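User: Modeling request: complex.
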Amino acid sequence: MPVNAVADYDFPANDREENFHGARVIYAGWDKHLMFSSPYAWPLPPDLPFAHFLAGPLAEAFGQHPDFAKIDWSQAIWTKNGEAFSPDLDKTIAENGLIHKDSLRFETPGLDGIGGQFI
Amino acid sequence: MDMPAKPKKKLGLKERYAVMTRGLGWEPSYQDIDDIFSMDSFEGIKIHDWDAWEDPFRLTMDSYWKYQAEKERKLYAIIDAFAQSNGHLTVSDPRYINTVKMFVNGFAPLEYMSHRGFAHIGRQFRGVGPRVACMMQSLDEMRHAQTQVHAISNYNKYYSGMENFRHHHDYLPYLQVPKSFFEDAATGGPFEFITAIGFSFEYVLTNLVFVPFISGAAYNGDMGAMTFGFSAQSDEARHMTLGLEVIKFMLEQDPDNVPIVQKWLNKWTWRGVRVLTLVAMMQDYMLPKRVMSWAEAWEIYFEENCGALFRDLERYGIVMPPCVEQVRKERDHLSHMAWCQFYQARGTSNFHVWLPSEEDMDWLSQKYPDTFDQYYRPRFEEWRRMEEAGTPFETTGINMQCQVCQIPMFFTEPGDPTRLAQHHCHHEGEQYHFCSQWCQEIFEDEPEKYIQSAIAGHDVFKGKAIRPEADPTAEDFNPAAEALAFWKLENGRDNGLHYGSQDERNFSMWRGLASSNS
Ligand SMILES: [Fe+2]
Ligand SMILES: [Fe+2]
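Assistant: Request completed. Predicted assembly structure:
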């Protein structure tokens, strides 16, 4: 339903990709690790190799967890906006088909948080 | 020459009310009434007879001044006494002061927003009765903002986190939640605004705000905050009645109004409860002496009181908002999820946080037997171990946020407390994410509005958290440090852990001086 307004109401979306100085926003959250209360967001260059994303921003955000160093990325199960997703670690963000404001989640089989309690 | 003294005619109460309110209106003769009141029809609410409006209070302006001035004199006498006797040192525990910080940063600016909103609709309704009532509420809200700021200024002299409350309310990420809530209401039409604020917030949810803050202040020895609470209470009674009267008036005027009102009730009950996440957290985690748990407050003030209200509105065809089902499921999780978020993102807050003590956790297990020990205690215990090991857990990442409520996406699935909820949609080539089905429904009803949300984390990425004098191209430019400077947060003083903070040390030192001779 369109907005009810006293006059014409037509404004551009506030968070269009062009407003991010060449970066695109990507979100990622680590399932079964609720020590991290929510997924995080990053402005990533589209030509950033996915492996560099994992070793850089993602590791910085999640690296404090003892499970992080144990992750075997070849076993990780990813979703993108709720659908299956299999990233090629050597390809870039753009080559992996990731677009602005995609939301990633990953699960790490065998690693279910501290004491297996999803922490 | 002597003028014969004319006997003054004294008006009866009823006449006086008529003259001082309805009598102030007039029929325009050379302007179209729809041009004068151009905003009270575009929302689709049909009013056939504005005179059918019954003013439940019959308050006139002269008695309003007299009554409020009296209250104000008493209040300021107490605020002065508080200042002279170092009232800030009589509170139960220095942790309490963090609730005062949250109040002045998160809530007092909403009183001011409410003042503006009611001034606006007090101009826009064409019925004289509601216009006068809205004008008085507008004045009340201005007083609330002022008296709260004045009362809390007695804390600001001694403790951090309050001196930039206006700037923080406008820019600090967590405060964008209450700010955007009110801006959403204020940018609706006059009928939506009064449904949102006058009814959903002031009537349906007000006790859930007032009990924790005002009774909490009383329990924790804060005379200043308690007094402005009580001073505002008689106004609140009037506001609640105005909210309820407006709802009933709309529902009685035309059956076509019912679905519109229902839609707003659904939206604003959900928006209100989402904002109350902050209050739930304050109630369960931040009050050193607790009044009651969030879960208990919800049962009494929502389930019992509002249950009766919604049953009363059934005769108009109004039903309980469907989101309430989810609120019930989140009842035993809400405050815990929020405190986990604030604990770990403590670098960007203007109040201090701490881990619950053993005693606190035992209280929480007792109040939340189905959730606390299973889901949240182990998290706090792990963080305790990390603190003790000298490697306290803290996140510096920027949270993903809901496009509508703007809260970080920390809510779990209503049926699964181990999985974070995420909802997603597309609109005109862009994608959007939501904490819940209900925030998504609000978005989809008016996407043109919510595509403009200013998401705090995104604003950092866009380079909006930079002071005009900073040079982002400089070699040594540090965006994280610059964001703190832009937000006017003094790292290590305004934010971080309570124990060991400057505020905690000062309180203990001053209280020691105040209660002993050495
Ligand atoms: Fe108020
Ligand atoms: Fe939301």
